[in-house]
Amino acid sequence: MERDLFVSVLAAVVGDAHVLTDPGMTGGYETDFTRRFGGPARAVVRPGSPEEVAAVVAACAEAGVPIVPQGGNTGLVGGGVPRNREVVLSLRRLASVERVDPVAQQVTAGAGVTLAALQRAVRSERLDFGVDFAARDAATVGGMIATNAGGERVLRYGTMRACAAGVEAVLADGSVISQLAGLPKDNTGYDLTGLLVGNEGTLGVVTRARLRLVPLLPARATALVALPSLASAVELLASLRSLRSLEMAEFMLPAGLSLVCRHTGLPAPFAAPYGAYVLVECADSTSPLDALLSVLSSVPDALVAVDAADRQRLWTYREAHTEAISAAGVAVKLDVAVPLGALPAFVEDLEGLVAGRAVMYLFGHLAEGNVHVNLLAAESPSELSEAVLRRVAAVGGSISAEHGVGAAKARWLGLSRSPASLAAMRAIKSALDPSGLLNPGVLLAD
Ligand code: 2HG
Ligand code: ZN
User: Fold this and answer.
1) Cα of 76 from ligand 1 centre, angstroms
2) pLDDT beyond 60 at 3
3) Rg over CA atoms, the chain
Protein backbone atom coordinates (compact mmCIF):
# COMPACT_ATOMS: atom_id res chain seq x y z
CA MET A 1 0.00 0.00 0.00
CA GLU A 2 1.35 3.50 -0.81
CA ARG A 3 2.31 5.57 2.20
CA ASP A 4 -0.28 8.25 1.59
CA LEU A 5 -3.03 5.74 1.15
CA PHE A 6 -2.02 3.92 4.34
CA VAL A 7 -1.89 7.20 6.27
CA SER A 8 -5.34 8.07 5.03
CA VAL A 9 -6.60 4.67 6.26
CA LEU A 10 -5.25 5.56 9.70
CA ALA A 11 -6.75 9.05 9.49
CA ALA A 12 -10.14 7.54 8.69
CA VAL A 13 -9.93 5.72 12.04
CA VAL A 14 -8.60 8.43 14.37
CA GLY A 15 -9.22 11.67 12.46
CA ASP A 16 -6.72 13.74 10.45
CA ALA A 17 -5.59 15.74 13.45
CA HIS A 18 -4.36 12.59 15.18
CA VAL A 19 -2.10 11.20 12.47
CA LEU A 20 1.17 13.11 12.53
CA THR A 21 3.68 12.88 9.68
CA ASP A 22 5.19 16.37 9.70
CA PRO A 23 8.72 16.09 11.20
CA GLY A 24 8.02 19.25 13.19
CA MET A 25 5.24 17.37 14.98
CA THR A 26 6.69 13.85 15.18
CA GLY A 27 10.08 14.76 16.66
CA GLY A 28 9.01 14.44 20.30
CA TYR A 29 7.85 10.87 19.67
CA GLU A 30 10.97 9.77 17.80
CA THR A 31 13.67 10.02 20.46
CA ASP A 32 13.60 9.04 24.09
CA PHE A 33 14.74 10.67 27.32
CA THR A 34 18.25 9.18 27.10
CA ARG A 35 18.88 10.76 23.66
CA ARG A 36 20.57 7.43 22.76
CA PHE A 37 17.61 5.70 21.12
CA GLY A 38 15.17 6.58 18.38
CA GLY A 39 14.67 6.86 14.65
CA PRO A 40 12.15 8.06 12.10
CA ALA A 41 8.49 7.09 12.42
CA ARG A 42 6.35 6.37 9.39
CA ALA A 43 3.57 8.20 11.21
CA VAL A 44 2.52 8.92 14.78
CA VAL A 45 -1.07 7.84 15.43
CA ARG A 46 -2.97 9.06 18.46
CA PRO A 47 -6.15 7.00 18.93
CA GLY A 48 -8.74 8.32 21.37
CA SER A 49 -10.36 5.06 22.52
CA PRO A 50 -9.57 1.34 22.89
CA GLU A 51 -11.80 0.71 19.85
CA GLU A 52 -9.68 3.09 17.78
CA VAL A 53 -6.51 1.35 19.02
CA ALA A 54 -7.96 -1.98 17.84
CA ALA A 55 -8.86 -0.51 14.44
CA VAL A 56 -5.38 1.04 14.00
CA VAL A 57 -3.67 -2.24 14.94
CA ALA A 58 -5.97 -4.16 12.54
CA ALA A 59 -5.12 -1.69 9.75
CA CYS A 60 -1.39 -2.10 10.43
CA ALA A 61 -1.77 -5.90 10.48
CA GLU A 62 -3.61 -5.79 7.16
CA ALA A 63 -0.88 -3.63 5.59
CA GLY A 64 2.01 -5.49 7.31
CA VAL A 65 3.24 -2.29 8.97
CA PRO A 66 5.16 -2.63 12.27
CA ILE A 67 4.01 -0.75 15.35
CA VAL A 68 5.82 0.79 18.32
CA PRO A 69 3.40 1.43 21.21
CA GLN A 70 4.33 4.52 23.24
CA GLY A 71 3.09 5.97 26.53
CA GLY A 72 4.72 8.96 28.23
CA ASN A 73 8.04 8.30 26.44
CA THR A 74 9.93 8.18 29.73
CA GLY A 75 11.52 4.79 28.93
CA LEU A 76 15.29 4.41 29.23
CA VAL A 77 15.96 1.32 27.07
CA GLY A 78 14.74 2.31 23.62
CA GLY A 79 11.59 0.21 23.99
CA GLY A 80 9.04 2.88 23.09
CA VAL A 81 10.60 4.80 20.21
CA PRO A 82 10.74 3.91 16.50
CA ARG A 83 13.87 2.48 14.98
CA ASN A 84 13.03 2.00 11.33
CA ARG A 85 9.93 3.80 10.12
CA GLU A 86 7.40 1.95 12.28
CA VAL A 87 4.04 3.50 13.13
CA VAL A 88 4.25 5.01 16.62
CA LEU A 89 1.01 4.24 18.41
CA SER A 90 0.74 6.89 21.11
CA LEU A 91 -1.68 5.92 23.87
CA ARG A 92 -1.61 9.28 25.65
CA ARG A 93 -5.17 10.24 24.69
CA LEU A 94 -6.53 7.22 26.61
CA ALA A 95 -6.36 9.39 29.70
CA SER A 96 -9.51 8.73 31.67
CA VAL A 97 -9.66 7.35 35.19
CA GLU A 98 -12.94 5.58 35.87
CA ARG A 99 -14.84 5.68 39.17
CA VAL A 100 -12.81 4.41 42.12
CA ASP A 101 -14.35 1.29 43.67
CA PRO A 102 -13.85 1.81 47.43
CA VAL A 103 -15.09 -1.65 48.37
CA ALA A 104 -12.86 -3.64 46.06
CA GLN A 105 -10.17 -0.92 46.47
CA GLN A 106 -9.58 -0.90 42.74
CA VAL A 107 -9.80 1.51 39.83
CA THR A 108 -9.74 1.15 36.05
CA ALA A 109 -7.44 3.61 34.26
CA GLY A 110 -6.70 4.23 30.60
CA ALA A 111 -3.22 3.49 29.27
CA GLY A 112 -2.52 7.20 28.83
CA VAL A 113 -3.25 8.24 32.43
CA THR A 114 -0.08 9.59 34.01
CA LEU A 115 1.02 8.21 37.35
CA ALA A 116 0.55 11.67 38.91
CA ALA A 117 -3.02 11.93 37.55
CA LEU A 118 -3.78 8.45 38.89
CA GLN A 119 -2.41 9.43 42.30
CA ARG A 120 -4.55 12.60 42.34
CA ALA A 121 -7.69 10.66 41.41
CA VAL A 122 -7.33 7.91 43.99
CA ARG A 123 -5.94 10.07 46.81
CA SER A 124 -9.08 12.19 46.69
CA GLU A 125 -10.86 8.95 47.72
CA ARG A 126 -8.35 8.33 50.55
CA LEU A 127 -6.72 5.51 48.65
CA ASP A 128 -3.29 5.35 47.07
CA PHE A 129 -1.43 3.49 44.32
CA GLY A 130 1.50 1.34 45.45
CA VAL A 131 3.93 2.09 42.63
CA ASP A 132 5.63 5.50 42.66
CA PHE A 133 8.75 6.97 41.05
CA ALA A 134 10.35 10.24 39.97
CA ALA A 135 8.92 10.33 36.40
CA ARG A 136 5.36 10.36 37.82
CA ASP A 137 4.29 13.50 35.90
CA ALA A 138 4.90 11.93 32.47
CA ALA A 139 5.00 8.13 32.86
CA THR A 140 1.71 6.49 31.96
CA VAL A 141 -0.23 3.47 33.21
CA GLY A 142 0.17 1.66 29.86
CA GLY A 143 3.95 2.08 29.87
CA MET A 144 4.14 1.08 33.51
CA ILE A 145 2.21 -2.12 32.76
CA ALA A 146 4.25 -2.82 29.63
CA THR A 147 7.55 -2.52 31.50
CA ASN A 148 6.40 -3.93 34.86
CA ALA A 149 7.62 -0.68 36.41
CA GLY A 150 8.93 -0.73 39.96
CA GLY A 151 10.21 2.42 41.65
CA GLU A 152 10.58 3.49 45.22
CA ARG A 153 7.90 1.59 47.11
CA VAL A 154 8.42 -1.94 45.77
CA LEU A 155 9.61 -3.18 49.13
CA ARG A 156 6.12 -2.57 50.50
CA TYR A 157 3.73 -2.91 47.56
CA GLY A 158 5.62 -4.83 44.86
CA THR A 159 6.01 -3.93 41.18
CA MET A 160 3.22 -3.30 38.67
CA ARG A 161 2.66 -7.04 38.42
CA ALA A 162 1.51 -7.10 42.05
CA CYS A 163 -0.59 -3.95 41.61
CA ALA A 164 -2.40 -4.94 38.40
CA ALA A 165 -5.64 -6.87 38.89
CA GLY A 166 -6.30 -7.11 35.15
CA VAL A 167 -5.60 -5.55 31.77
CA GLU A 168 -7.31 -4.86 28.49
CA ALA A 169 -5.06 -5.17 25.47
CA VAL A 170 -5.21 -5.25 21.69
CA LEU A 171 -3.35 -8.20 20.17
CA ALA A 172 -1.36 -8.07 16.96
CA ASP A 173 -4.33 -9.02 14.75
CA GLY A 174 -6.55 -6.29 16.24
CA SER A 175 -8.50 -8.63 18.55
CA VAL A 176 -9.08 -7.50 22.14
CA ILE A 177 -8.42 -9.30 25.42
CA SER A 178 -10.31 -7.68 28.28
CA GLN A 179 -9.82 -8.77 31.87
CA LEU A 180 -11.04 -5.80 33.87
CA ALA A 181 -13.38 -7.46 36.40
CA GLY A 182 -10.57 -7.39 38.96
CA LEU A 183 -11.55 -10.72 40.50
CA PRO A 184 -9.20 -11.67 43.33
CA LYS A 185 -9.87 -15.30 42.48
CA ASP A 186 -10.00 -16.49 38.88
CA ASN A 187 -8.36 -19.80 38.02
CA THR A 188 -9.67 -20.19 34.50
CA GLY A 189 -6.40 -20.95 32.81
CA TYR A 190 -3.27 -19.07 31.83
CA ASP A 191 -2.63 -15.75 33.55
CA LEU A 192 -2.85 -13.47 30.52
CA THR A 193 -2.66 -10.35 32.67
CA GLY A 194 0.59 -11.62 34.18
CA LEU A 195 1.87 -12.29 30.65
CA LEU A 196 0.99 -8.82 29.40
CA VAL A 197 2.58 -7.09 32.39
CA GLY A 198 6.19 -6.67 31.29
CA ASN A 199 5.53 -7.62 27.64
CA GLU A 200 7.27 -4.39 26.49
CA GLY A 201 4.75 -3.91 23.70
CA THR A 202 5.82 -7.14 21.99
CA LEU A 203 2.67 -9.21 22.63
CA GLY A 204 -0.12 -6.65 22.77
CA VAL A 205 -0.97 -2.98 23.18
CA VAL A 206 -2.33 -2.25 26.65
CA THR A 207 -5.36 0.05 26.48
CA ARG A 208 -6.71 -0.05 30.05
CA ALA A 209 -5.74 -1.56 33.39
CA ARG A 210 -7.62 -2.57 36.52
CA LEU A 211 -5.38 -1.48 39.38
CA ARG A 212 -5.24 -2.57 43.01
CA LEU A 213 -5.20 0.33 45.45
CA VAL A 214 -3.94 0.60 49.03
CA PRO A 215 -5.11 2.78 51.95
CA LEU A 216 -3.75 6.34 51.85
CA LEU A 217 -1.47 6.59 54.87
CA PRO A 218 -1.57 10.10 56.33
CA ALA A 219 1.45 10.04 58.66
CA ARG A 220 4.91 9.98 57.13
CA ALA A 221 8.49 10.32 58.34
CA THR A 222 11.51 10.55 56.07
CA ALA A 223 15.21 10.39 56.84
CA LEU A 224 18.36 10.92 54.83
CA VAL A 225 20.90 8.72 56.59
CA ALA A 226 24.68 9.05 56.32
CA LEU A 227 26.67 5.84 56.59
CA PRO A 228 30.31 4.80 56.26
CA SER A 229 29.72 2.31 53.43
CA LEU A 230 27.24 0.47 51.27
CA ALA A 231 27.81 -2.62 53.46
CA SER A 232 26.56 -0.63 56.45
CA ALA A 233 23.56 0.49 54.35
CA VAL A 234 22.66 -3.17 53.76
CA GLU A 235 23.03 -3.82 57.51
CA LEU A 236 20.78 -0.85 58.28
CA LEU A 237 18.16 -2.27 55.91
CA ALA A 238 18.05 -5.45 57.99
CA SER A 239 17.07 -3.37 61.05
CA LEU A 240 14.68 -1.15 59.09
CA ARG A 241 12.77 -4.22 57.99
CA SER A 242 11.54 -4.61 61.57
CA LEU A 243 9.38 -1.50 60.94
CA ARG A 244 6.00 -2.44 59.59
CA SER A 245 5.66 1.14 58.28
CA LEU A 246 8.80 0.94 56.10
CA GLU A 247 7.98 2.12 52.59
CA MET A 248 11.20 3.27 50.95
CA ALA A 249 14.94 2.58 51.25
CA GLU A 250 16.93 4.18 48.45
CA PHE A 251 20.71 4.33 48.27
CA MET A 252 23.03 6.98 46.90
CA LEU A 253 26.80 7.36 46.76
CA PRO A 254 28.92 10.50 47.28
CA ALA A 255 29.66 11.20 43.58
CA GLY A 256 25.96 11.20 42.62
CA LEU A 257 24.97 13.27 45.63
CA SER A 258 27.57 15.97 44.81
CA LEU A 259 26.41 16.05 41.19
CA VAL A 260 22.80 16.53 42.35
CA CYS A 261 23.85 19.37 44.69
CA ARG A 262 25.72 21.11 41.86
CA HIS A 263 22.78 20.65 39.46
CA THR A 264 19.95 21.65 41.81
CA GLY A 265 21.76 24.19 43.98
CA LEU A 266 20.76 22.22 47.09
CA PRO A 267 23.29 22.46 49.95
CA ALA A 268 25.39 19.41 50.81
CA PRO A 269 23.20 17.61 53.37
CA PHE A 270 26.04 16.86 55.83
CA ALA A 271 29.12 18.83 56.88
CA ALA A 272 31.44 16.05 55.64
CA PRO A 273 30.96 13.45 52.91
CA TYR A 274 30.10 9.85 53.89
CA GLY A 275 30.61 6.55 52.07
CA ALA A 276 26.90 5.95 51.36
CA TYR A 277 23.51 7.50 51.96
CA VAL A 278 20.07 5.92 52.41
CA LEU A 279 16.79 7.77 51.96
CA VAL A 280 14.23 6.06 54.18
CA GLU A 281 10.52 6.73 54.38
CA CYS A 282 7.95 5.22 56.73
CA ALA A 283 4.18 5.68 56.43
CA ASP A 284 1.37 4.67 58.76
CA SER A 285 -2.02 5.75 60.08
CA THR A 286 -0.29 7.30 63.13
CA SER A 287 3.16 8.88 63.21
CA PRO A 288 5.94 6.39 62.45
CA LEU A 289 8.59 8.92 63.56
CA ASP A 290 9.51 7.45 66.97
CA ALA A 291 9.80 3.94 65.59
CA LEU A 292 12.03 5.21 62.76
CA LEU A 293 14.21 7.23 65.14
CA SER A 294 14.73 4.20 67.37
CA VAL A 295 16.15 2.22 64.43
CA LEU A 296 18.37 5.16 63.45
CA SER A 297 19.69 5.75 66.99
CA SER A 298 23.23 4.58 66.23
CA VAL A 299 23.80 5.86 62.67
CA PRO A 300 26.62 8.44 62.24
CA ASP A 301 24.27 11.21 61.05
CA ALA A 302 20.73 11.69 59.68
CA LEU A 303 18.38 14.46 58.56
CA VAL A 304 14.78 13.78 59.49
CA ALA A 305 11.61 15.37 58.09
CA VAL A 306 7.90 14.96 58.67
CA ASP A 307 6.19 17.81 56.88
CA ALA A 308 5.63 17.59 53.15
CA ALA A 309 8.00 20.37 51.99
CA ASP A 310 10.92 19.11 54.12
CA ARG A 311 10.34 15.54 53.04
CA GLN A 312 10.23 16.67 49.41
CA ARG A 313 13.60 18.42 49.89
CA LEU A 314 15.14 15.16 51.13
CA TRP A 315 13.57 13.24 48.22
CA THR A 316 15.13 15.66 45.74
CA TYR A 317 18.62 14.46 46.72
CA ARG A 318 17.56 11.07 45.38
CA GLU A 319 15.00 11.85 42.69
CA ALA A 320 17.11 14.50 40.91
CA HIS A 321 19.86 11.97 40.08
CA THR A 322 18.42 11.18 36.65
CA GLU A 323 18.07 14.80 35.51
CA ALA A 324 21.43 15.82 37.01
CA ILE A 325 23.19 13.01 35.11
CA SER A 326 21.28 13.86 31.92
CA ALA A 327 22.35 17.50 32.22
CA ALA A 328 25.97 16.34 32.49
CA GLY A 329 25.86 14.26 29.27
CA VAL A 330 24.35 11.36 27.37
CA ALA A 331 24.56 8.43 29.77
CA VAL A 332 24.71 4.72 29.09
CA LYS A 333 22.11 3.41 31.53
CA LEU A 334 22.21 -0.13 32.85
CA ASP A 335 19.43 -0.93 35.30
CA VAL A 336 20.44 -4.14 37.05
CA ALA A 337 19.65 -6.13 40.18
CA VAL A 338 21.94 -8.30 42.24
CA PRO A 339 21.27 -10.43 45.33
CA LEU A 340 21.38 -8.08 48.32
CA GLY A 341 24.18 -9.97 50.05
CA ALA A 342 26.35 -9.49 46.95
CA LEU A 343 25.60 -5.75 46.53
CA PRO A 344 28.56 -4.12 48.35
CA ALA A 345 31.16 -6.38 46.70
CA PHE A 346 29.46 -6.01 43.30
CA VAL A 347 29.66 -2.21 43.51
CA GLU A 348 33.32 -2.36 44.53
CA ASP A 349 34.03 -4.72 41.65
CA LEU A 350 32.22 -2.38 39.23
CA GLU A 351 34.25 0.61 40.41
CA GLY A 352 37.41 -1.31 39.52
CA LEU A 353 36.01 -2.42 36.16
CA VAL A 354 34.90 1.04 35.08
CA ALA A 355 37.85 3.08 36.46
CA GLY A 356 39.47 5.02 33.61
CA ARG A 357 36.86 3.84 31.07
CA ALA A 358 33.89 6.08 31.99
CA VAL A 359 32.59 8.38 34.69
CA MET A 360 30.19 6.30 36.74
CA TYR A 361 27.23 7.26 38.93
CA LEU A 362 25.46 4.54 40.92
CA PHE A 363 22.24 4.83 42.90
CA GLY A 364 19.09 2.80 43.29
CA HIS A 365 16.54 0.85 45.24
CA LEU A 366 18.35 -0.77 48.15
CA ALA A 367 15.86 -3.45 49.19
CA GLU A 368 15.76 -4.97 45.70
CA GLY A 369 19.53 -4.79 45.16
CA ASN A 370 18.53 -2.63 42.17
CA VAL A 371 21.49 -0.56 40.98
CA HIS A 372 21.08 2.16 38.35
CA VAL A 373 24.47 2.15 36.63
CA ASN A 374 24.96 5.41 34.74
CA LEU A 375 28.08 5.76 32.63
CA LEU A 376 29.14 9.09 31.15
CA ALA A 377 31.86 9.59 28.55
CA ALA A 378 32.29 5.83 28.06
CA GLU A 379 34.96 5.11 25.44
CA SER A 380 33.38 1.95 24.06
CA PRO A 381 29.82 1.86 25.41
CA SER A 382 28.90 -1.52 23.98
CA GLU A 383 31.95 -3.40 25.31
CA LEU A 384 31.72 -1.71 28.68
CA SER A 385 27.97 -2.46 28.93
CA GLU A 386 28.62 -6.10 28.15
CA ALA A 387 31.41 -6.28 30.73
CA VAL A 388 29.10 -4.79 33.40
CA LEU A 389 26.21 -7.10 32.50
CA ARG A 390 28.50 -10.14 32.59
CA ARG A 391 29.51 -9.21 36.15
CA VAL A 392 25.81 -8.95 37.02
CA ALA A 393 25.14 -12.41 35.59
CA ALA A 394 28.18 -13.83 37.39
CA VAL A 395 26.69 -12.97 40.80
CA GLY A 396 23.25 -14.36 39.88
CA GLY A 397 21.69 -10.97 39.15
CA SER A 398 19.31 -9.69 36.50
CA ILE A 399 20.41 -7.55 33.54
CA SER A 400 17.12 -5.64 33.76
CA ALA A 401 15.56 -4.91 37.14
CA GLU A 402 12.75 -2.49 36.35
CA HIS A 403 13.27 -0.54 33.11
CA GLY A 404 12.82 -3.49 30.77
CA VAL A 405 15.13 -4.99 28.17
CA GLY A 406 14.03 -2.78 25.28
CA ALA A 407 16.24 -2.49 22.24
CA ALA A 408 19.16 -1.59 24.49
CA LYS A 409 19.77 -5.00 26.06
CA ALA A 410 17.97 -7.44 23.73
CA ARG A 411 21.25 -8.92 22.51
CA TRP A 412 22.29 -9.74 26.09
CA LEU A 413 19.06 -11.35 27.26
CA GLY A 414 20.80 -14.75 27.25
CA LEU A 415 22.88 -13.57 30.22
CA SER A 416 19.75 -13.63 32.39
CA ARG A 417 17.60 -16.26 30.62
CA SER A 418 18.44 -19.88 29.82
CA PRO A 419 18.13 -21.24 26.25
CA ALA A 420 14.95 -23.08 27.33
CA SER A 421 13.34 -19.86 28.69
CA LEU A 422 14.36 -17.95 25.58
CA ALA A 423 12.79 -20.64 23.39
CA ALA A 424 9.57 -20.50 25.44
CA MET A 425 9.49 -16.71 25.13
CA ARG A 426 10.03 -16.89 21.37
CA ALA A 427 7.25 -19.49 21.08
CA ILE A 428 4.85 -17.18 22.93
CA LYS A 429 5.87 -14.25 20.73
CA SER A 430 5.35 -16.14 17.49
CA ALA A 431 2.00 -17.56 18.66
CA LEU A 432 0.62 -14.11 19.50
CA ASP A 433 2.42 -12.03 16.87
CA PRO A 434 3.34 -14.40 14.02
CA SER A 435 4.32 -11.60 11.64
CA GLY A 436 6.47 -9.85 14.25
CA LEU A 437 4.68 -6.51 13.87
CA LEU A 438 4.61 -5.48 17.53
CA ASN A 439 7.73 -3.62 18.65
CA PRO A 440 10.23 -5.50 16.46
CA GLY A 441 13.76 -5.63 17.85
CA VAL A 442 12.60 -5.02 21.41
CA LEU A 443 13.12 -7.65 24.14
CA LEU A 444 13.84 -10.53 21.73
CA ALA A 445 16.62 -9.61 19.32
CA ASP A 446 15.89 -10.15 15.61
C1 2HG B 1 14.93 5.97 39.22
O2 2HG B 1 14.94 5.07 40.06
C3 2HG B 1 14.66 5.62 37.80
O4 2HG B 1 15.08 7.16 39.54
C5 2HG B 1 15.70 6.18 36.81
O6 2HG B 1 14.50 4.26 37.65
C7 2HG B 1 17.05 5.57 36.93
O8 2HG B 1 18.08 7.33 35.66
C9 2HG B 1 18.16 6.18 36.04
O10 2HG B 1 19.14 5.46 35.77
ZN1 ZN C 1 14.61 3.17 39.53
Assistant:
1) 8
2) no
3) 22
